[in-house]
Fold:
Amino acid sequence: MSLSLRYHLYAQRSYVQGAPIVIGFSLKNLSPNDVWILKWYTPLEGIKGKIFGLKCDGENIPYEGRMVKRGAPEQDDYILLEAGSSVHVEFDLSRDYSFPKCGECKLQFKGRIFDVVADKYQVPRASSEHFVVDIPGNTVSFSIVGVA
Structure:
């Protein structure tokens, strides 16, 4: 299977402290084949674990959101990403992180998809059969100003 996936994060230049910090996430399938992506540990399922690296003014900002234990994946845990297409979601980082007022925050997705499947008849499949893929993408920078 020829596979090429890439993610892209989108952010405003600045956000107001105490207000929502809405970030966009896109995942693009650059390969010539349709693939089914396990949404776990990606923004496609929401933030349910330590899936980002976040620093504000050089200091690591710890994840404070919920951690999810998983069983076996189900059909609904996968999303079809057709050849050449992309999927986009938005999420509010302020629900899972406490932000200080700061000059520069840098956010990066850890860039890992825990299962990619080319044959729809193999979805879902057992964790022992998962094909883990590290994907490239960008880092976004923004500032936190004032108080809401």
Q: What stands out?
A: The chain has one domain: 5-135. Residues 28 and 86 are 4 Å apart (CA to CA). DSSP finds no helices and 13 strands in the chain.
